[in-house]
Each structure stands twice: as C-alpha cells, then as structure tokens.
Amino acid sequence: MKKLIIIGANYLQKPLVQKAAEMGLETHVFAWEDGAVAKEIADYFYPISILEKEQILAKAREIRPDGIVSIGSDIAMHTVNFISEKLNLVGNTLRCTEISTNKYKMRIALSNAGVSCPKFCSVKGDEKYNIQDFIYPLIVKPTDRSGSRGVTKIENSKPLETAIKKAQQESLSNEAIIEEFFYGKEYSVEMISFQGDHHYITVTEKVTTEAPYFVETEHHQPAPINIVIERKIINEVKNGLDALEIKNGASHSEVRVNDNGDVKIVEIAGRMGGELIGSDMVYYSTGYDFVKGVIEIALGEFNGVEKLISRFSGVYYVIPNPGKIINITDNSGKFPEIVKTEIIYNIGEEIDYIIDGAGKRPAVFVYFSEKSKFQVNPNEIVVFEVHNEDTI
After folding, report:
1. For residue 108, which of 121, 92, 93 has the smallest C-alpha distance?
2. pLDDT tens-digit map of 259-301
3. pLDDT (tens digit, 9 = 90+) per residue, 115-155?
4. Could you report the per-residue pLDDT of 42-76, keeping only the tens digit for each?
5. How far, CA to CA in Å, does 97 sit from each of 38, 124, 194?
6. Nearest-CA neighbor of 139 among 214, 59, 89, 227?
7. What whole-number distance in Å separates Cα of residue 153 and Cα of residue 117?
8. 351 within 8 A of 288, measured Cβ to Cβ
9. Are 339 and 284 a contacting pair, CB within 8 Å?
10. Quick check: helix, strand or coil at residue 295?
C-alpha cells in the first residue's frame, strides 16, 4: 500500500484525506490538534504543527512516503516542498516556494519575466519607502498571507501609514507590499501542472465586498467570459507559472481584466484554491476530480485533465451578524442545488466582525446547477442566531 503524507487537517484538508482513502492510500496527517477535523479519518495522525518542518521531516524519514501534499494553504506549501526536496519526492523547489508565497518576491519574478503587474514596493518594519510616482488608489497588503487578510484599498495618502501597519501586523515577517490599484473584474484561474506542463481547468468569477477590504463572498464557475478573454487569461497565467517556477501540483491564480480586455496578474499561489473552490466546485462544474489529480501528481502518476461535463457550480459564504451563537438552523436540505454545507462554528462560540478576511467565515456551502449563478441569500440557508450585548 502506498503512503501519502498530508500537511494540515482542518476542513480544507478533509476532502484530501477522504480522497486518498478512496484511492486506497495509507494516510499520514500532520497538524496542530486544535481544529483537526480530518484527524478521525486519517490512518495515522501526528499532532505536530505544520510549521515544524524538521520534526515532520524526521517522522517522514521513518514513514518513507510515496508522496506529500496539501491543498488550500500557502503556509503548508513551505513544509510540503521542503520535505519533497529532502526525500526526492514530486514537488516544487524551495526557491519556487519562496517566490510564490511572498507577494513582493513574486512581483519581482513576474516583472523580470515580462508578466503584467502594477507598480509595487515593499515596506518592512519602519524602513523608508518611495511611492512618489505611484498613482492612487493603492492596495496595501501583507507579503505573506492569503485571502483578504490585512488588505486595504486607499484613495489618498492620509490612511497609508495605518494601512501599512495593519498589513504588517497580519504578516508573518512584518512586511507589507504597496501596489497601484488596477481596475477591472477579478477572476481566479484553476490549473494543474506536471513536470512544467500546465493544464488549464477553468476560470472562476469572484464576488467580494466593496473597498476598502474586498472580503470574498461568492465564487461561480465557469466565469461568464468570452473565448478571447479566456485565452488571454490562460496565456498570462501560464507565463506567470513559468516565472515562479511552479512545475508540479495545483495552482490558483488571481487576475483582473479591465474594460479594454487588459489582463493583469494579482497573485499566483502554488496550491489549490481554498474554501471548497478546488476541492468541490471544480468537480461539479467540469467533472474533473481536481483533488485526485493533485494526489496523482504527488505520486508521480498524473494522467492528464479530462473534463466530463460543463455545468455551473459555486460557493457562498455565510457572514452573519457578530455575537455569541445561541442557535444554528441549517436550511440547505430544502434546496436540491446545494450539494455540500460546511458549518465551521458551533453554538456557544463567538462570531467576530468579518472585516478584512482575517476572521473565519462561520459557514460555507456549494451549489451545483444547470443554470448560471444559483441565486440565494446565504444567511437564509444557514441561519445563525446570535446574542450581542451591543444591540440590547
């Protein structure tokens, strides 16, 4: 029986553990025990933080795995690629990991390769920076966090220092990046690569809250774009993957397209899109088992991408009012289009303000439909009743 190491055990990694079991693999899962919902379905679970690369490596040498993998986590990719390189498993290089998980180094690599991106500079700690020739509005964000954590759009210089400090506080390295804002519709691009050959899967339409924080609220596949724009997006993303030296595994790229059809790379992650985008949406919209494909690549057994269907899928995030949860009602069973619901919070827990993506969304669900963009109010699907003293 082949052995697979999986880094991470939260709800994002659960589909990976389940799929590996379906494939007849022996699963060895490493994660901090708190929130490790995949612990119970793993063959072997090790309560070691995913940041403890050397500890995991020592155990991995004993396990002698056939592959190592993770999905939906930038932080986990440091450990995945560190161990894959040490044990000569399929993965990406440490240099690739460095430039694909740090937004400033990513911008440098993309710019050097001629891939389109806005003006940028980094700010670490209290060091000086120069943005005299930058045109507002600007985007300020941490260099090493995913999602919308610590991201702020500013229209003038007045809130700049506050935005920088906020981004640095969210950053693991106390570093922020400042970029010119590129107007346009935002999409994510799901691809999978093996030995440097990039295979396109689909484009996802993103829906976010308005400025300044851009918290993701919905995702829909396939994105409603014409074939000309789709080809431009695919070409630019493939160039970006080459620039970042991403040769193996899933990738999740974010791009913006303006009214003139110009495409700019927002960022590229050398891992699958989180929040059920890659693990569920792709399968329902295309028929391609993305999770299985990622595992196959980790084992060196990739068989290509075969799309069996062309339908519509999407994800909605439930973002209720803040407060202490006193009751949860799940109405998803009343809608045949809803195929999966993940309720992350429990009765008695506190829901914080979901301002900039730093806090977890309390629930998320996936739909599968014959029609584009299944329309529904997420807060009517999973209803959180909360007690908030501020409202009394």
Report:
1. 121
2. 999 999 999 999 998 878 999 999 999 999 999 999 999 999 9
3. 988 889 999 988 889 998 999 999 999 998 876 778 899 99
4. 999 999 999 999 999 999 999 999 999 999 888 89
5. 25, 20, 16
6. 214
7. 17
8. no
9. yes
10. helix
Q: Which residues contact 126 (CB under 8 A, 6 or more apart)?
A: none
Q: What is the side-by-side strand order in the sheet with 312-318?
A: 263-269, 249-257, 185-194, 197-208, 216-221, 312-318, 363-369, 338-343
Q: How far is CA 85 from CA 91, 123, 195, 241, 297, in A?
A: 7, 31, 14, 19, 15
How many CB atoms are located within 10 Å of the residue 147 CB? 15
Distance, first Cα to last Cα, the chain: 59
The whole-model pTM stands at 0.89
Q: What is the DSSP string of 4-67?
A: EEEE--STTTHHHHHHHHHTTPEEEEE--STT-TTGGGSSEEE---TT-HHHHHHHHHHH--SE
Q: Give, for 205, the enclosing helix (H) or strand (E).
A: strand 197-208
Cα-flanking dihedrals φ and ψ of residue 135, to 5°?
-105, 125
Nearest residue to 275 (alpha-carbon basis) of 72, 120, 87 = 72
